[in-house]
Write a sequence for this structure.
């Protein structure tokens, strides 16, 4: 099976012009077929605030009302996505910027209202991996922002990590798929206070041990749960670390396999 | 040669939710391969004003400074484009929303500064019609907003009518191409005060006569000049009228050929 890399960057890189440029340089040199997924960062919050759209939180979780969805569509789907595409073109990567509505690539269900009405938030239902692959086969590099659609004309806000793992699961029908989650840390850390204590390899057995030892906790718990979900659904490997893990000169990051 | 239709809609349709829905219905039923190009309308001006970005005019012409370009990228490339794509998907049209940076489809030169510095405005240099055709051949319907790029990472604001005619000229290398310019009028009018005085057919000879008689003047002059430029560069026919010309039940619109 041919290899496919799916790289996800978050707000910390998108908000820093020089960090983004440095990352896109690395991404452009990454060999083989590839997909980029980007989050949005605080840009949307800033612009929402300027537009007088209030951030609504319930139990510490953000609510996507109609106005917030408009801002997200403008900022993630327009400003951030199209500038990344233009910069990749300058690096000779033939990028095409997408939401889940484009090419009908990612369909989601509006999250049902239970205790909380999250508003226009979508939980991924299906990835049209054959459609995404048509773009890849035509020589394009898809660049996804964290927006999906319900198939009935409604755009929906969706978590970028989830989009990444769901695309990876879908593409695993056609490729040996690896995810690269770029984040602030060098990897999953043995000691949260020592940034150099990177655990280089985690498999299912080691994961159980780390859970028992309480080393994986807090924000890292759901991330790793999602990783193992993706691995159980066909993804070959998942890497977590800072952007330099794309260079292969740096091997100080975490690789997760079954 | 296979036929290709390129349809352009302007602000009057985009700003009216029900007019846009009605148009997209007609567009979805248009047979054969097709491309949609949309302008932006006053939405960008409203949002710019809310964000405190002033519209700068010199000699009655709008200047696209860096902040204005950001708003245009958000509104045209994000909000308007992605909502059109989502609505087309609901109508079973497999749309992909694009700027000229996506698929490197439309490259432009930043307009040189002479008497006026127009800012981040691009004049179309080339259309990568083979790239656009890859999308069409894969079964997608391209939906372009009026943004291009310079190939060096810079997005540029470009007139939607010009983008339409330049795409049509490029695609004429591969298809028998027709343009449909949807606008407020029923077509080119013999008497500007009589909306039913549509001139149904204009060829090069009739165009000269209409010019001599002073019937084509003001805003219609540059539009028709652009039309004949496109026809001289390979476009088969150009139609101007309201959106109902897409139905073929209404034949009360203007068709322009050489």
């Amino acid at each position: 099976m041919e290899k496919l890399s799916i790289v996800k960057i978050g707000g910390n890189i998108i908000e820093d012009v020089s960090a983004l440029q440095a990352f896109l340089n690395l991404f452009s040199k990454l060999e083989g077929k590839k997909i980029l997924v980007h989050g949005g960062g605080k840009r949307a919050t800033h612009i929402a605030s300027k537009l007088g759209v209030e951030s609504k939180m319930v139990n510490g979780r953000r609510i996507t009302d109609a106005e917030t969805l408009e801002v997200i569509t403008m900022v993630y789907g327009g400003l951030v996505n199209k500038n990344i595409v233009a910069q990749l073109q300058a690096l000779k990567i033939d990028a095409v910027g997408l939401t889940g509505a484009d090419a009908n690539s990612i369909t989601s269900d509006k999250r049902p209202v239970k205790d909380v009405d999250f508003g226009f938030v979508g939980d991924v239902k299906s990835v049209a991996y054959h459609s995404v692959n048509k773009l890849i086969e035509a020589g394009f590099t898809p660049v996804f922002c964290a927006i999906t659609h319900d198939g009935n004309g409604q755009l929906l806000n969706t978590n970028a990590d989830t989009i990444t793992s769901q695309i990876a699961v879908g593409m695993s029908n056609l490729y040996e798929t690896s995810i690269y989650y770029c984040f602030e840390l060098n990897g999953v850390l043995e000691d949260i206070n020592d940034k150099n204590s990177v655990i280089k390899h985690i498999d299912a057995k080691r994961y159980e041990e780390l859970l028992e030892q309480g080393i994986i906790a807090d924000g890292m718990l759901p991330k790793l749960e999602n990783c193992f979900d993706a691995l159980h659904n066909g993804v070959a490997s998942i890497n977590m670390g800072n952007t330099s893990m794309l260079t292969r000169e740096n091997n100080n990051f975490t690789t997760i396999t079954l």
